[in-house]
Amino acid sequence: MQSENKLWFGSWPSDVPRKIEYPKTPLHELLERAAKAYPAKTAIAYGEREITYAELNSLSSRFAAALSKLGIEKGERVALFLPNIPQFVIAYYGILKAGAVLTAISPLHKEREVAYQLNDAEAETIVALDTLYPILTNIRKETMLKHVILTSMEEYAYKTANTHRTNCETLNVHSFQILLEETLAEPPRVHINPEEDLAALQYTGGTTGTAKGAMLTHLNLVSNAIAFATWIKGTAEDTFLAALPLFHIYGMTTSMNVPISLAAKIVLLPRFEPAAALEAIQRHKVTVFCGVPTMYSLLLANPVLGNYNLTSIRVCISGASPLPLQIQKRFMEVTGGFLAEGYGLTEASPVTHCNPVDITMRTVRVGSIGLPLPDTDARIVDVETGEKTLGPDETGELAVKGPQVMKGYWKRPEETALVLRGGWLLTGDIARMDEDGYFYITDRKKDLIKYKDYSVYPRELEDVLYEHPAVKLCAVIGKPSPTVGEIPKAFIVLKDGATASEAEIMEFVKAKVATYKIIREVEFRKELPISPAGKVLRRVLQEEERQKAKSR
What pTM did the predictor assign? Predict the structure, then answer.
């Protein structure tokens, strides 16, 4: 698209540059620069412990040297199998300094999932929590693993450093802490080409099929961290709450790489617990919090919310799933800060869009993911071919282009060719752009329900269901039908103390949508399957329905 056709520039925040000169440096240089500029400043707060930027940089250099001693060379994949603890950050930047490629595995994964990712990434080394070691013991013979490095939740939790050790008596099973103690902070000298060399092999959540490794370069991650930091007007004075999982690309970028690029403080939470998050916000005077709608909803619903002062919050970003307007408005009332909805995907490091961060903007665009970030281009293309650019308010597939877009999928050239075309990434999300350049996600392309010859978007029906006062959580899928292809089926979790019948729900939706879109079946549940990033897993529900259909 030509510059004059980028409608979003008409809505562009006056204090945000349209283009940024990104340093052509490896990702770990963000940490090294922060340590040089602010050596005594707190980088990480975790439990009773605080780690300065100088300490964090030194520890990551020690870990890089330790990996080199173990024989890890440039380009080799090293897996991280850890929750949000300081060792994740230390190992992450140490892996990069060693010239290796990190691949982060969810600590929630089971044996089959862990084995799959290790084998697909061809990882021979893994850094894992000691309590997860039994999983590795059971699958080790099925993988290429040569080295297992174990650590614990306690090793960096207390004011007195290095008081805990993880016992490792098995061959090629190492203690994280002992490796650091026995190694000098002299990382190997490895030449990195930021535009070509991989920093991370980041696996998609597998919500639309088999998980694939997105090949993210150093420049991909550096540019996205700097662009997002610029968009939210971040500074070294900010304090970020890292409650999102760092193994997920959303948390990895917005809650780790972004604050480190700013030399800001990171408050690490091993897992999201509303009471602990409220305590952390007040204690550390958190100014920036990136999360998902369920997090904001749970904070607002917490019975002790009124006991905490949350007015330190300057800006919050919501992603991963649609942000309900009532939650957005209520959260801004409680904190006095601004809660903006954004958008991204693993293949784009991940952020591509975000609403302007402006406390004076009390009128929000309901349902909008905002404007493209600096240096990010976006357009709506036809769903059938992905080649024709559509006009304002026309619905099609969202395509993006920018320095944050991946090189491709690991060992999957055919699938890469399907989504990367002429530098454009086809996101698989159905969207539209209004006349002011604001974008709106309508649905997932692969989640489309085909009822007879009609296309029904689950997202539209879910938005209607959330308007019902009894609905707490919902998901709509296409249930296989031998006569019409698929019918829209809703899965619903009711609010505590609320009641509703299937007929009531169906009538509620029927009054608001065209006849071919109406919900034709409702199932009430106590909970729905949720991904670590906070998304409702429609795929799991769809698979359940397919299995039921087969057994009939």
Answer: 0.84
